Amino acid sequence: MTVAVTNGRLGDVETASFADRTERLERLHSGELGSINSWELVTAVDGPGTRLTVFMNGCPLRCLYCQNPETWFMRDGIEVEASEIIARIARYVPVFEATGGGLTLSGGEILMQPAFAARVLRGAKELGVHTCLDTSGFLGRALTDEALADTDLVLLDVKSGDPDVYRRATGQALEPTLQFGRRLAREGRVEVWVRFVLVPGLTDAWSNVERVADYTASLNALRPGAVSRVEVLPFHQLGREKWHQLRRPYVLEDTQPPSPELVQRVRAQFRARGLLTY
């Protein structure tokens, strides 16, 4: 078909293209369609058992130590039907049942696409599959109560306890994460694992860790057992080459992983609050 513009009016191709774009945006908004980076089957990394982890595109944070900087923008992802993800989940149900695993939605930031997350979570629960969200909590208000009811576990990344350090590390405010964690604790059912990335020279100060540990303990004060696990994740340089390939300035170029002694000190700070810490 020939593209035609007559008397300032769009021809058939332009009209069809506009309609296609409109439909696509509507399907993204409704969650029928999502932008993902990849998916993989992993064990003992993103929750219990063997898990299908789906890495979504789009993130409002700009963490200095991000290991997946290619996931920052939704436009850079692969558009996939929610039904396709659910069909893939169904394929692995026997594996999940055998290992106590399930589905983990990660990123990027999964709550950049809350409607898609809600559809996939609902589909997974209808299959009887354990569900997990790996999130910074910064967009926690976007998660509906219905989607939260379909969530069994949240891996909550508390990147700092000091608001100034948090803004330096992520470019955003800390408070939305704290509010989301309190919502999870008050909800009364969702299990929470708190994750803290230990970056020498950035998040390792004693006072900063104390704030994260105090906050984590406060969630268990709201609901005993709300936080069942804390993971102290030592900084590494595995994402550095991605930053180079994307030609983005990487300010942690010379930062070394934390020493074993530092890792043990930080874990001890959490354990001092009676928190099961790895």
Low-pLDDT parts are 1-16
Radius of gyration: 21 Å
Query: Which range does the strand content fall in?
Result: 15-25%
Q: Could you report the average pLDDT, rounded to the nearest whole number?
A: 92
**Through-space gap between termini:** 62 Å
Backbone shape: globular
**Can you count the beta strands?**
10
Range of helix content? 25-40%
* Strands side by side in the biggest sheet: 5-3-4-6-7-8-9-10
- Main pleated-sheet profile: 8 strands, mixed
Helix and strand pattern: EEHEEEHHEHEHEHHEHEHH
Helical stretch tally:
10
- Find the structural class using helix and strand composition: alpha/beta
Question: Can you put this structure into words, describing what you see?
Answer:
It contains 10 helices and 10 strands. It is an alpha/beta fold and 278 residues long. The strands form 2 sheets. Strands 5-3-4-6-7-8-9-10 form an 8-stranded mixed sheet. The termini are far apart.
Q: What's a concise summary of this model?
A:
This protein has 278 residues and is α/β, with parallel strands linked by helices.
Write the layout of secondary structure elements.
Layout (H helix, E strand, L loop, with lengths): L4 E2 L2 E2 L1 H19 L2 E11 L6 E7 L21 E4 H10 L1 H7 L2 E5 L7 H13 L3 E6 L9 H5 L3 E5 L5 H8 L4 H13 L3 E8 L7 H17 L4 E8 L5 H6 L14 H12 L7
